[in-house]
Amino acid sequence: MALPKKMWSLAKTLIWIAALGATFLLFAFAGMRISLKTLEVTVPDLMGTPLDEGKTATEDLGLRMRIDTSRRLHPTIPAGAIMLQDPRAGVATRRQRTIKVWISAGASPSQLPSLIGETEGTAQLRLREDKVELLRIARMRSNRYPNGAVVAQDPPPAATSSAVSVLINQGERTSTYVMSDLIGAEVDAATAALRSQGFRVTVTNDHLYPNIPPGIVLRQYPQAGFQISLGEPISLEVSR
Prior knowledge:
single chain; 240 residues; alpha/beta; Trypsin Inhibitor V, Chain A; 3 domains; three-stranded mixed sheet; 28% helix; flat
């Protein structure tokens, strides 16, 4: 009788071990499923979304975006908006996956207006009204063209295109100078030299220092070594 009892006790122990093992495996499997679920996201619907908004939507979900460089005509989706995506919206996918998108070129290419001579703001307004994408703005400095005006565009006026780049003049670069150290200089000589170069100089003599004769520069603004342009004010404090 002792042997069957021992066998029955051993059998019960094995059953308990098996039950505990099954429970552990069940919880481990459930935990793994939950962990995998937390790494999954649903691909958003990007169709018709402006490119910047589409980038934000994908980044917020932990997804990446790759933009196809070719643009295609689309009868309803405006130029610059997303017209196609892969994978499609609603698909469950893992985070960090790359979503490939294609950008619409609009319903049909537009005949570009002439932007030459227009200000930057006016040019952008005209392009928005004509639903033409502004691809790139380059800038230059010259005294041959009005400041802030468009001096060139690519493609040229009257060309058929859904996008354009422009070159804008920022005006002639002004000369700059390094501010001299005037501390200890005689104020009349310093102001005469500065004003002869086109600088505006103001002088204040509020300070009385022993052993320093009147008319000596004690402080200056801008300080020595600072960059300064013609016409900028210079302030000198002198002894009295």
